[in-house]
Amino acid sequence: MNTDPVQQVLDRLEGVRQSGKQWSAQCPAHEDRTASLSVCRGDDGRCLIHCHAGCDTKDVVAAMRLDLSDLMYEDGLAGHYTNGQSKSVQSSAQKPKKQKLYSGKVLATYDYTDPEGNLLYQVRRHEAIDETGAVVPGKKTFRQWHQDASGNWVSGRGDAELVPYELPRLLESSDIRFIFEGEKDCDAANEIGLTATTNVSGAGKWTDSLAKYFADTNVVIVPDNDEPGRMHAQQVAASLHGVAESVRILELPNLPPKGDFSDWLDIEFGDSAEPDDIAKRMTKLAIATTEWTPADAPQEPESDAKQVMAPIAKFTVDQLREQHPKLHEPVVDGLFRKGEIFNIVGATKSNKSWTGYGILFSIGSGRPWLDRFETRRGRVLLIDNELHAATLSNRLASVITAMGLDHEDYADTVEVWSLRGNMRTLPQLMREFDDVPHGHYSFILLDARYRFSAEGSNENSNDENRDFYNCADQLAAKTGAAVGMVHHSTKGDQADKRVTDVGSGGGSQSRAADSHLVLREHVDEGCMVLDAAVRSFKRIDPVVLRWEFPLWRVDEQANPKDLKGARTKQQEQRAEADAEADKAIVAALMNERLSIRKIRETVGMGRDRVERRLDALQSQGHVAYELTNVGGNKCREYYIPNEALEGGGLG
């Protein structure tokens, strides 16, 4: 049975036509020739229907042989719709599913009112029940309701303005305003004499429109002890900074993981403390907390989600060998293993994504990739952030056909997440795997790598590349999967570059990945040379691939040395001379910082040549400079950055 309320209604109607995010159809409750029934999805996922001919909603629902409850949205569908687009396009493959929760008995109601105390909307907290009606311990659900003009309760907030909880109390008080994550904590705080409020729906749902109610006040934000709570506190603080008189974030002492204010009250005071004593303790803690400033916010590129710092793994040699007696299992023999990260690199329109699809379905079906590289069959995941779902579906269907796959070859092993129009950075994406068991996936493909970076990030920054690939390593460790990234090449000719230097970005990206699969243009039309740099396998020889839509085929007759744009003998000699010059400059900088004049004296080269090679070395991350004052003039002093030293220099 389809549990999507909108689709369930549409399946029972005649003359359905879609316009944007709404549908029109013939009303089943009267003889309708003008398609007078409107259908759309509410903010909380419920199905909204309206007959413009005047039929009562109950009559329309009854005519479809449904109940009003069938129009409601189940908690189990949370995340099923993103920007109005169903995730059902992702795959028929089985994914770990969260338990579906339904709303049972009402446990508490929370009224949101205007400044005069008139009801705007109500939040109801329910006990959570499963499909059998049994109560699910430790879980709860929430529903929002408002009253229509006739006083009838209607699901949702309607068009009511978003306001803080307990708004009249908030406006009347001159005390510190405490902002909690939920209404239950607010009620507990207000009962002991504090002035407490929250925003509807809790963590992550704050909007800047609420800030005006806190103008020129002293605000203390009290987060729950978990990552969503801390992120929410930062969001609220940033919104109120410059509006409120002061903003503080109070992390309650001795609060256990995932604990909230109500838990803290039980732990710290039990049933014995007087309300005044608790209020005084909270006020004292608040005053002792340092004021929040924008400098306290997480910095880019981690502003959307702090990367998790795990404890450092420390071993003796014996412990290391005992705990890691062998290499991880290969996913594709000769190329990459579980827990490793790698790049698929190529120029624009070099069929990088199609290369990834071929690898994806080869692993999912257990077939050799390119009839050359053996695979271990396993569950694979494509996370695409470039293509519309329809385009992606069409592409994958063509690969399935070309590979001659049967349905059972991929139905339970190949999954797809479509992020077009619903972007995630890599740290944000990590949260989607919180409930995915380790080892569920053998291979995860991210397409395209640059769109998983934080807004405003600089892919030529060694620091930002280091952090990005560190996060990719965390994803691989968290899931146990090999993580591949479709990545674009640097501009210009790639023929004479080392495999690890073809990918765009700072030098740290070349050293961070365990493997690089690189596509370089061959002199023959429609051909590419596949070359690879691998860390945990023997070096593989490059091969020529010939494009036969939608797959690559190995061309054994073509010579992989015939790269398009390969250098002439004169160019080779110049390149060798440049390489020698680079080594001489780097050697001169190994022990001290030098100005251009000092470098020239040390290596015996002219100014133009030294400056040209320094520019090249700097772009590759091998050298850097700082401006210093020499005799009142600004002077560049060049040095070898730490990451270049750690990477082994020019080698």
TrEMBL record:
Residues 488-513 are annotated as: Disordered. It holds the Pfam family AAA_25. SUPFAM superfamilies: P-loop containing nucleoside triphosphate hydrolases, Zinc beta-ribbon. Transmembrane segments: none annotated. Residues 490-500 have a biased composition (Basic and acidic residues). Gene3D superfamilies: 3.40.1360.10, P-loop containing nucleotide triphosphate hydrolases (3.40.50.300), Zinc finger, CHC2-type domain (3.90.580.10). InterPro entries: DNA_primase_Znf_CHC2, P-loop_NTPase, TOPRIM_DnaG/twinkle. GO terms for biological process: DNA replication. One of its GO terms (molecular function) is zinc ion binding. This is Regulatory protein RepA. The lineage of its organism: Bacteria, Pseudomonadati, Planctomycetota, Planctomycetia, Pirellulales.
